[in-house]
Amino acid sequence: MADFQGVDFLRLDELLSEEEKLARESVREFVSKEFLPRIQEHVRQDGSFPMELVAPMAELGLFGANLHGWGCAGMNNVAYGLVMQELERGDSGLRSFASVQGSLVMYPIHSYGSDAQKDRWLPALQSGQAIGCFGLTEPDFGSHITAMRTKAERRGDTWLLNGTKRWITNGTLAEVAVIWASTDDGIRGFLVERGTPGFEARDIKGKFSLRASVTSELFLRDVEVPESSRLPKAEGMRGPLSCLTQARYGIAWGALGAAMACYDEALEYSKERIVAGGPLAGKQLTQQKLVEMLAEITKGQLVAWRVGRIKDEGNLDFAMVSLAKRNNVDVALRIAREARDLLGANGIVDDYQSMRHMMNLETVRTYEGTHDVHTLILGEKITGLRAL
After folding, report:
1. Which residues contact 33 (CB under 8 A, 6 or more apart)?
2. Nearest alpha-carbon partner for 168 in 104, 110, 75
3. Catalytic annotation present for 59
4. Are residues 139 and 76 in the same domain?
5. 243 and 371: one domain?
């Protein structure tokens, strides 16, 4: 993969600025040279992320890359999307690490935090000196945010938090957790620091998917935090949902990176694999599969690029992100499955990457709003009716 050239059948590079292409190329080189040689080791372990890469990622400006100020790179959203694409070409766990740090931890502090919260946390998070996590999903409720059971009760100048969060990326690595809780005044966000009495994080073991990512469960038992730990501008559902929109946007690009990796692997393998007297790539069924992969990647690129441009214009509708996330993850998963199939028996060993991406994408299809949830979001958008 060190000589990976990308997939650009319709010359989409002509739609990109030099700065956007430079951001992509720098991360492409980092993934090929620094990450891919390590991934096999970490996948074979159970829940191991290559923490030695956090500092180099920070030096590349990958944490909060599309935010401004406090040391953030200030990329536009297309450049940011291309960065997410290249990270997920390496592994969904690599993109998830950066996406959670930027879109789900730094973004809410940047958008809804106090000046003191921003000054304390954003430089540390941007530099990788601190890791954060996002506590929204619960054991009994994923996308159904309004049903969350975690409660925050105000007691004078403090808040008392009780509840459980599950499927939390970077939970046991985090110095700070953005915890969303139900209060008498609606949903509110709180910054809970590691070591706060009553706050505990435990890793979830036995995953088939996202094995190079730390996934945790958070427990809050009478966790007392001061009023200064509440995100003062986050009121109601808008807070957590806006964070999800940021993360879903990155996923729409990231999934294309996984799809490109699988397509590239299947293409090169099929040209070298000799079957019935000739290369596998010379068979009609193989060419049909490769053409379908190329077509879906190309369409996904156009969707992601257009959504990115609209986002940069400030005219984004969250339903556009739902369409991009829903489509691009779905086609990426189908491409990974087809690539694994073309690899035959070789596709089930970790000398090849398609099955790793395939397993990861099963999770990506589920988190940040399942495929079906995004279907319902789009259905309501185009009909004006909420489905029952």
Report:
1. 2
2. 104
3. no
4. no
5. yes
Domain that includes residue 185, residue range? 132-229
> Does residue 119 belong to any structural domain of this protein?
yes
**Which residues are CB-neighbours of 207 under 8 A, at least 6 positions away?**
46, 47, 215
Distances (CA, A) of 348 to 40, 138, 244, 279, 358: 13, 33, 33, 21, 11
pLDDT at 143: 64
List the CATH number of the domain containing 190. Answer: 2.40.110.10
| E strand residue ranges, the chain | 132-135, 151-155, 158-169, 176-183, 186-193, 199-203, 215-226, 274-275, 278-279
Last residue of a domain, one of 169, 202, 229: 229
On whether both 23 and 99 belong to a single domain, the answer is yes
Amino acid code (one letter) for 224? E
Q: Exactly one of 25, 52, 368, 380 is catalytic; which is it? A: 368
Extract the residue ranges of the chain whose pLDDT is less than 70. Answer: 1-2, 143
Which bin fits 127, alpha (ψ -120 to 50), beta or left (φ > 0)?
alpha
Buried b (16+ CB within 10 A) or exposed e, 1-29: beebebbeeeeeeeebeeebeebbeebbe
The answer to whether residue 7 is domain-embedded is no
**192: helix, strand or coil:** strand
Is residue 246 located within the same domain as residue 286? Answer: yes
**Distance of alpha carbon 162 from alpha carbon 324, whole angstroms:** 35
d(CA 27, CA 24): 5
- The pLDDT tens digits of the residues spanning 324-347 come to 999 999 999 999 999 999 999 999
What total of structural domains would you count in the chain? Answer: 3
**Residue 321 near residue 253, CB atoms below 8 Å:** no
The pTM (predicted TM-score) of the whole model is 0.96
Structure confidence by residue, pLDDT tens digits, 230-273 = 999 999 999 999 999 999 999 999 999 999 999 999 999 999 99
Domain check: are 246 and 355 in the same one? yes
37: CB partners within 8 A, 6+ apart = none
Kindly report the CATH number assigned to the domain that includes residue 115: 1.10.540.10
Paired residues of 327 in beta bridges: none
